[in-house]
Amino acid sequence: MMKFIMENRYQNKTGIIILAAGNSSRLGRPKQLLEYKESTLLKNTVSEALKVENSFVIVVTGSNHDLIEKELNLTDITFSFNSEWENGMSSSIVKGIKELLLLNPDCEQCILAVCDQPFVTVSVFENLIFESNKTKKGIAASAYSETLGTPVLFHKKYFQELLELKGQEGAKKLIKKYAEDVVSVLFEKGNIDIDTEEDYSKLIS
User: Fold this and answer.
1) Number of domains in the chain
2) What InterPro entries has UniProt attached to this entry (predicted)?
3) Range(s) of the domain holding residue 61
4) Contact of 86 with 117, CB cutoff 8 Å
5) Residues of the chain with pLDDT under 50
6) What distances in angstroms separate CA 73 from CA 26, 65, 137, one per listed residue?
7) What is the reported pLDDT for 22?
8) What's the rounded Cα separation, in Å, for the pair 141 and 127?
């Protein structure tokens, strides 16, 4: 029965890939494990992602992966270790998409998220899915501070191009390239992320 439940989980339509591989060089300690809401930044993002119906969650780790996997200690997510995390964001996106296609080759869409947007909620993820379905657009990107960024949803037709990203390229390359196929979805406070001790102090003060 347990095996069926596990297999069934990965037949879900939406894969949520949380990118948590960086070494937080500007912060000087793993931002993924910063205390937040009686939890941690990463755990908060994961717990909100797990509330999305008909989805499964992949966490891409890299630097400090042992610490992070031990801290999360959750059976209902899949960890994917990116040994090439130092090569930039693209390597984690590629790793996440490959893992997603292994778990569910028929997956319809994915959402790429980062671990340091403290105000991300289940509704942010659900709004992306809703707007993509409503508008039939292949990309649904979060809008804040006059830019489009994460979390961002991609239809499966973009998976191959995501797999071809290199170096410091992130999903923004595709958002710009296929602007006519993008719907923007407001994410209030999406501009707040944690890169420095000052950012973190503001968050918890």
Assistant:
1) 1
2) MobA-like_NTP_Trfase (IPR025877), Nucleotide-diphossugar_trans (IPR029044)
3) 2-204
4) no
5) 1-6
6) 26, 12, 36
7) 77
8) 10
92, 82 Cβ separation under 8 angstroms: yes
Tokens at 169, concatenated: 């390229």
Q: What is the CATH number of the domain that holds 140?
A: 3.90.550.10
Which token pair is 93?
A: 């996106």
If we measure between CA atoms, which residue out of 24, 59, 26 comes closest to residue 45? 59
pLDDT in the model for residue 28: 63
Q: What's the gap between Cα 192 and its chain centre?
A: 16
Strand 139-144 to 147-155 pairing? antiparallel
Q: Amino acid identity of 69?
A: E
User: How high is the pLDDT of residue 88?
Assistant: 84
Cβ-Cβ contacts under 8 Å for 90 (sequence gap 6 or more): 165, 166, 167, 168, 169, 170
The DSSP-derived string for 103-154 is H-TT--EEEEEES--TT--HHHHHHHHHHHHHHT-SEEEEEETTEEEEEEEE
Q: Is 0.90 surpassed by the pTM of this model?
A: yes
The whole-number pLDDT of residue 5 equals: 45
Among 113, 67, 117, 120, smallest CA distance to 92 is for 113
